[in-house]
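We treat protein structure as text, and this decision shapes the records that our systems exchange. This encoding replaces a full spatial description with a residue-level series of whole-number codes. Below, we set out a record of this kind in full and without editing:
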Amino acid sequence: MPQEQIEKTFADITASCAKVVSYYHLQNGISPIKRLYVKNSSDTEREGMRIKISSEPKFLLPTEITDVRIPRRTTAKFEANVSLSPLYMVALDKRESGEMILEVFDENDERVAAQRFPVELLAFNECDFSEDPSSLAAFVRRTAELNKLLNLAARKLQGWGLNTCTGYSGTRNNVRNHFAACYSVLADQKLSRAEEKTDAGFTFVSDHRDTLISGAATPLELALMLAAMVEANGQNAVISLIDGKWYVGCFLVNECLPNTVSDDAEMLRKKSDRGVSDVSLISVNDIFGGIAFEKAEKSAQTVLKKNADAEFIVDVKRARIMHIFPLPERVKGENGYDLRQSKDYFTDIAPKQLKEYGGDIGGEKEISRVTQWERRLLDMDMRNALLNFKVSQTVVKLIVPSLEDFIENMAEIRSYTLESKPKENLESLDKLANGFDRGGFLKPFADYILYEYRNRRLRTVFDQREHDGALLRLFRKERSIQEETGTLTLYLAAGFLRWKEQEQSEEKYAPLFLYPVTINRKGLAAPVYSVDVNLDDLRVNSTLLEFLYQEFDLDMRGLADAPLATPQDVLSVLQRIKRETVRFKGWDVIGNVFLASLSFGNYLLWHDVKYKSDRFRAHPIVRSLINNRLELPEGAFDLSDRSSDEAYIGEEKMYLPISADSSQYSAVYDSLSKSFVLHGPPGTGKSQTITNIIANNIVRGRRVLFVAEKMAALSVVHRRLQAIGLGDFCLELHSNKANKNVVLSHIINTLSLADSVPEQNLEEKAAEIAVPLEKLQKELDAMHRKRYLGFSVYQAILDYFANENAPDCLNIDSLFYEKLTESSFNNYLDVLTELSLRAKECGDIEKSPFRHIGGFTYDDKWRADGESVLDIYLMELKHLRQYARELYPLFNMRTVSLTATKLRALYDICKLLGLECVRAFFAHCDKKRAETGASVQSVAGDAKGLLDSFREALARHRMLTAEYVGKYGAYPSDIPMSDLEAAVKTESPSRAVKKLIPSSVEKKDRKFYLEFLAKCESNRLTLMRRRDELAAVFGMSVPELAGVEDRAEKMTELYSCAAKLYADFDAGLFNESCIELTRYGIHRFIPFFIAAYDNCERAGEAFAEVFRTGGFLGGDDLGARVEYVTNVQKNLDFIPSWCRYQEMVEHCRKSGFDFILEPLDAGAISAADILSCFKKCVYYNFVKSELYLDDVLCQFSGLTLEEAAAKFKTLTEEYERLTRQELYRKLVLSLPRPETTGDHNLERVILMRAEKTGMKGTTLRGLFAQIPNVLKACCPCMLMSPTSVSQFLDIDMEKFDLVIFDEASQVPTCKAVGSIVRGKNVIIVGDPKQLPPTTFFSSDYKDDEHYEVEDLESILDDCLALGMPENHLLWHYRSNHESLIAFSNAMYYDNTLLTFPSPGELSSKVSFKYVDGVYERGGSKCNRKEGDALVQEVIARLKDPAQRGQSIGVVTFNTAQQNYIENELNKLIHKHNLDAVAYDCDEPLFVKNLESVQGDERDVILFSVGYAPDANGKLSLNFGPINQAGGYKRLNVAVTRARNEMKVFSGITGNMIDLNRTDSKGVAGLKAFLEYAERGREMLAIASSDITSTSGGIGELVAAELKDKGIMCDYNLGVSDFKIDVAVVDPRNKDKYILAVICDSESSCKLKGVKDRVAMQTKILKKLGWNTYTLWTVNFFNNPRREIAKIRDHITTLTEKKVLSKKTVRDITARYRAPYKSYYAKPMAKAGAEFVLDFVNEEKIRNRIRDIIQTESPIESSVLMDKLLVMYNVPKTAKRAVTTLSQYLDEFASMKQEHFGKVFFADKPVETFRPSDTRTQRDITKVHPEEIIAAARCAVETGLNMRRADVVKEVVNLFGGKRTKAVTEWIEKALDLGIAENRLMLTVDDIMTT
């Protein structure tokens, strides 16, 4: 359904919704929305979203999912717990259409995605069985009418004289009788057949009451009624629609089908067959027809035998188990409908019993578990072919004249070719058949058959075509069983006991003698098969002997140990059996011989459990399993969590011959002392870990038993042990048919080993490694260690960059930082967060209408007061503004802003104009104007001038008077001015003047005094004149100075106010205005303006008081005040928020946050900037101070750290190599020497005797018992299957210190305990999400479509159930592309695996190929078209030189498809001559099914699903093993086998699988996997509950900077916990990344140690093809631009074509190349063989050998021998001399090194290569591998990353040789060694690097 037409956003919603809903869904809790996904396609995480689910009409209860958070580029999966409305659904009488509506809203509550899904709403009694057959089970219900019918059935049984039966309390017949009675009762009702009430595919089902009242029923209604009667009686019913007719069945045994719905009519036929009789089946049409019950049964069986097509089969019992319950009966009531559940009609059920406590609470008796194991190990039922042999497709009968002849001839020849029956037309050979017969008719041909025996031919009873087919099936089966179970099960079964349980019972056949054989095949087009017979392990069928003893009291168990070395021994046993069985009537011995696969290996396991149970109970683990209670000693649960760095710096260092991550290292450490379960999901390095565990244990003198059911698992570990040099000390005995002589030879060879490796000083090397390790660890610790403020330097840097754009306006004192603590910082953050929130509530603080309002208590009283004050103040402001506007024109003012200053000036002017003196002044001016006719400006100007001169004179008078008083005292009065002036002039003062002179004035100062006094008096007189003049102006009658002065002051004040009022003051204009305003008295406007101003001032004061404005009244301008107060009034409802803000401001001020408040008030920062500004400052200061003060970070140098990392990697690789040598040396030293005394010398004699006799008469079990000390020293590690453990190791032998199980999920507990009891501690390695143990390989015939193979309990599951301690391997190494493991990691491992992305991560390596094929369900059970498409893909890859280097595995979902593909591949591979490419390689092509692929892996895995719609277009949801309870585990195994690529061939797509039709977890997984293959990673949704908030880290910052520079990249690449911080897209190829930028980020911290981060991580990334660049966070902090520029330069370097200069090439070559120094000595012509044999020359020869080795080291042994032979003139035919020289060479064992079967002598490490020159032509096949590795490194460094094939060519060129097949193979082996030792690296793209 398309989305609604809304604007495209970041969100996308998809869902899987039911198309039909009914009350059935409500009753059974089935949500109409099964899957709900929301995808965030943006590059940012989205939070605070919600999902709304609704419907139209309202049939859904509204649902919302809130607080939704989805990471960037992620699809989240949500649990849509949507419920149907009960009231709506129960009242639905007719079908309706509706819609389910799904909507997504973002954090702003804007809808960003929506979808509508149409749905059909069914009526209450309506059914949609065509789409959901399981819904029929809901209509199987019990009602009152049904109870009546059941009573009739009970009476019917009484009438027949039969007992009633409830449930399965009786026999099959009792159950069948009741079913027949129900059938008869319904037939008695004489119901007429009604037409199905179907409309648009939906069917209406009537209630029982309506059906019986109407007397008519549809076939479906009748079928449901009969099934309800069966269920009501406690029995299990099935309902099926077969060929369009309804059938009802009743299980006669207490069983049910594996699935609620199936379409397997064949399975139903098998269960209803007369010989089985598990189900009684009838057609309801026969009820309508009144047909007798038995005839109805037969009729149904006849239909099934005709390969009838079942549309579906519904198992009612299984439906109930799956919580599909009966619908209630709907009864119409007064207030609607009442519902009556089926259980309401169970009148015969006893009430639930009350719980009673007490009594025996003991657990199950311990013997019950042991008995269970016994029964598992030794089947005594008739399914065991050793008791009831069945001739099948995988059994081949041989032609034998008589059993005796066969036995006698088997003793002479051990290898035979298998041929078809003779082509000659021999009489009676046409009687031959693949079955049992007496074979007497073959006696005439005895000579012919014996002749064939002597010519090593065994004839089968088949013609050539049947012969080839039968042997091919047998060959494949045996190969599969051997690989999967470690048991060779192929035997020649010779002689059979024909026996019966009772005289009249069916005859059965049991084999007597079992000859173990191995089958071989040569050729593909015309294969020839042969068998090798192992007579040493010929045995009697001991299972049969035990069975005869238990069932028939016939004790021949002693024959199991009877000698069978000769034919006479065998014939004696045969005669004994004949004698003992002759008394049983109908029993006989038949002389047939069959080649068959028989499971015989469990007998010894059973024997141990049966007869040595005390040993089992003594072992704590086994005892725990028996008692279902873990009984481990104290401390056993304390598993370690260690770092792999401890291998170099720990107190007890573990040896790591193979690199290990920390999770592996922890397991290795714990293996020395503890038992535990080791979880090993796919590709997590189980085999590497096991190898390290074994190495660490055996080097400490501990014995290890490694047990694996699968050959592949054991082989992998064995190969790894050989690769690290420990193969000599490991004995592999996987099969119970191991070659005795090979084992003996292995022990003897190991015992003879000499110490040839010098002691390695690992402690010194570890100390050297510790230096860079400590440096690297300290840097990361310092970066990520939480510090005094509660965060790390790294986090502080991230937080600084997160706030980098905040304004730089805070001035924080350094003392503040010094006092900062974690507690105070967090407290400050809380405070500032609150401040920010409250400030945001108030908007922009600077522009807020409340900016100047202070804090106060807001309550109702204040609100009323505040509102009144606001109203008054606003009203007064407006009044004042009006009066002011009216007055301005009167003062001749232009329109100006009404500022507070101007208003005050106007107010003061108005007040002054009201004064009498002011009015008098202007009245005088007006009068003067009238009198003189002068202008107002002139008159007023004169008056003002007079005023100004008066004020000047007054000011001067006061100044002079003050000066006089200060100098001379009081100023004199009555000064005669004329005398004074004369005195000044004549300097002769008069008497009057003299009197004025103070006595203090000296004579010489008199003149100055008189002048000064004259000046003062003159100014006084001027003042008086001005006074008088001004007094006239003011109209004063008495011109008093004080009065004039006051009036002058008022006028001065007036003019001062006028200057403030006018922008450009014009005194004349002002005077004119004043004259006009005062001419007739005060103007009327003036007093009202004054009153308005006063009122406004009082209102303002009230406003300031109430609102705590601190005197602020709204601004300087009157208009601004009006606007301000208006805004306050409009936003008065925000006052509470402002009050809270003010409270916070006050709190902040007290806390010392003035540095925040000041810029906030000033508008320098906004409310949103508060936190970011503060954080920016704090984080920056913190980082700077820590970088300066920290002992590690103060010395930080990225270059130094990179050098340390490079050194660490080099040293650890060298340490790993030395570790291998030291392990080998220690183990050799531990071998017992002949010169030392002890029991081992006697055991040496036993070994020598066994070698001489060729182990005749000696079994390995017996040999091991005789040489316990030698075995312990030579084979401290034994690798075996559970079967071979019991076969070869006596339970009473000394226990192993450690038993390790690999692939433990596949090992049944009953088989495992036999191995566990042979050890002290046990490690259970496996994965509970992988294959469980199965009886698949013990079943003789598998029908994948009717898959009923049993999954058994595994030792892994049992140990987990016990609660054993658990360790987990976490790193995934296998997949070279993350998409290959992403599905499994998400689906089954909750994304806990640490996986690594590849450079090709932008495209998936899981692809889907749809093939429109047909699944031949009734025939071959394969999909030929799909198989052909896959075969063509394989052939194309094998033909393509570019692809053939990748190994291929084919996985099928069933054996039929496997066989078809394998056959077709064999034909085409042979036809195109591709046999060598396909099979002659390290990893040959395989074709396996789900059951057998665990443990295997290949570069490319091709899937063939096989299942598809049949010829009629019908798709069955029966996918064989996938449908089983453990089916999802099989799928998990299959989808995790690929290393490089996985391609799925399928005839079905994910959307074709309807999960409504099945409850199988495996099928659900298959659907999800197909969708993943089709559509990629977008299908891997994360459960919403698992989504956690993650920081982008430093990678996000770097990526943002790079994107700004135009570089495409992603950050935090990866789906697991490991992330590549920045992945840069290749500018030349947008589908691929070119560079991984690795930072010291949090992702690095998740890797436990330096080795994990520096060595392991880098190695894996390089192997995946990444170029890596290290960026240090500190460097980025200090200079981001510089670091980004470096990355850009690095990218440029990678994208430009690199060409090394000739000088660089010469320098590199010179570093790796050295000349070959050949030792030369003149040949001794007269020496000869005698010289060598003469002991006198021993020292000379030794010295010469030493000189040659020292000169030509390393030198291959044959080259050295040739030099010696030439030097001493010894011919190669002189064997004694050659042997003597070889003995001399053996004395230089300390210099000897063995590589790939060749011996070299070297006295120093090999670090260079020596090419051929003119004097020495070297044979490259005899060049030391280390030299080839050096040449390869040289080639790679000069050739700049070459492909492997090119490296081989260049190595040949460097040595100056010719490239032959042998040379290429030798170089390839050396390259493999270099790769294994980490000196060379091969990426997934086949690029070799150093």
The longest strand covers residues 508-522. Confidence is low (pLDDT under 50) at residues 1-6, 345-367, 1336-1350.
